[in-house]
């Protein structure tokens, strides 16, 4: 296929409720949507999951826009591409900037699947026709509010509950949740809020029978996590520390992690995500798909990836209505009794809702190959 046209939309959407982590509060979501067209008029869609500020990683919407405009589009525009796996190879001359790469690569994967009349899940080698989903809940200062929120999501059928923790907002929160919900699969995400000095506190988490603790230590660490894992019964799951198959291999060899949270944007795209999935499967390390508060386009990519067989733990891909009054895809992502039925239409399986998409677009840039 020849990449004939790439359109970038700068989007602004407002989340229904603010999402609070140990590092910041979000309600406005500014992000990029990419539209890629081939010579036959097929269209693929991708999303940059970078946030507008560098709290999660060093990438932002601004850095992504720069990388995509000035470096990535010139590499693929007008180029003949046989298979989307070639894209990560083409981008390998550019260091890091994984979310920017992933936005372009994801749109090309969708394009490839549509052109070959298959679902994106099938194009990746996935087989599951429905996926189990969990929910990620931000920090609530009021405990009764949190318990009420969790109760609501359990009633909706979500398969596991993940709560954000930070120093001063950890043991008591988890104790109260366990008191109210003794049997629900529960996990905690620290977003790197602790250090090895907190080891005694972190050991206390073992009493809550958590399915895992996600990224307790520094976002660039795999050494201290190995030290911590030796002293914890609770499985550690790495998120921020994993950017590639190589990071995955090293973390597993060191014993730093027993579970991997795969985020397509963080690892540079679907090709690398699939490699990480395959390696973890070989090593008996379960994986799940994390979320970046995506719009429907990014959400659809997550669903397709989750159809691969080693995604055996529920991911963070909640339904559209969890975050948005109106999503930019049709139909919206719907969760029923904790499951999403994988769409069977070609590519990502959801159509962009052009009217909604236009209403959230604040800037539009077009690149054409002649
Ligand atoms: Mg996380």
Structure description:
35% of the residues lie in helices and 22% in strands. The chain is globular. It contains 13 helices and 15 strands. A seven-stranded parallel sheet has the order 5-6-7-8-9-10-11. It is α/β, with parallel strands linked by helices and 370 residues long. The longest helix has 18 residues, at 98-115. Helix 1 crosses helix 3 (98-115) and helix 5 (143-156) packs across helix 6. It has two domains: 3-118 and 354-368, Enolase-like, domain 1; 122-341, TIM Barrel, CATH 3.20.20.
Bound molecules: magnesium ion
How many runs of DSSP E, i.e. beta strands? 15
Give the radius of gyration: 20 Å
Q: Estimate percent helicity.
A: 25-40%
Annotate the secondary structure layout:
Layout lengths: L2 E19 L2 E15 L4 E6 L12 H16 L8 H6 L7 H18 L4 H5 L5 E3 L2 E3 L5 H14 L4 E4 L6 H10 L5 E4 L9 H6 L8 E2 L8 H9 L4 E3 L6 H10 L4 E4 L7 H13 L4 E3 L6 H11 L13 H4 L5 E2 L8 E3 L9 E2 L1 H7 E8 L2
Parallel strand pairs: 5-6, 6-7, 7-8, 8-9, 9-10, 10-11
Antiparallel strand pairs: 1-2, 1-15, 2-3, 4-13, 12-14
Bound molecules: magnesium ion.
